[in-house]
């Protein structure tokens, strides 16, 4: 099946957010350690970003490591951090070749020094690229992000930099980690789970949600295309009636 023939390139989601779930279960199903699933999940990331670039989707944001993930077994967390360091280092030449800009959101200061250094180097190296913006949500909690935004706004009001009467949704969004990018129009979650898991709670207010039973290491660009096709079949009304939209 040629999925590309079914996609209307004039109605693409500009921003796709993905909850990459199922690495551990995928590895367990093969009699391997959980980190084996994380390693193979990197291939899925590479393939999906390639697919997004081929379509012309500008922003891909991946739920890479949540603030709650720090509570996982210490050895697994250490292995994930080491994998992140080696993967980012290896992928930078490909990012440069394919004009991909790397970005990151979350409580980045909680990352190990080596990991943060490699991440910042990659972000700086790719800063001038103008293709797909690949954002990694690391040590990320949407609730904490919202609290952080509220605190930032409160400080600005206290310091006389902002009038309380001028606070609105636009001002609030500018104080989120994602303030310089459009909100996701499509959220994909793999592995058959049907929850948001504290991910981009403000930003996905009007996003279309797409759930697939595929585990993340099995997810490929063709699965992204299926999600986009499903997205384009939906009627996005934003509170209006069908008659008003059509």
From TrEMBL:
EC number, UniProt record: 2.5.1.-
Q: Which residues form the active site?
A: 21, 69 (proton acceptor)
An annotated Gene Ontology molecular function = magnesium ion binding
Name the SUPFAM superfamilies on file: Undecaprenyl diphosphate synthase
Going by the UniProt record, its keywords in alphabetical order are: Magnesium, Metal-binding, Transferase
**Bound cofactor: record note:** Binds 2 magnesium ions per subunit.
Q: Which GO terms describe its biological process?
A: polyprenol biosynthetic process
For the ligand (Mg(2+)), the binding residues are 21, 208
Q: Which cofactor does it need?
A: Mg(2+)
Assembly and partners are described as: Homodimer.
Q: What is this protein called?
A: Isoprenyl transferase
Give the species: Mucilaginibacter gossypii
- Please spell out the taxonomic lineage of the organism that makes this protein: Bacteria, Pseudomonadati, Bacteroidota, Sphingobacteriia, Sphingobacteriales
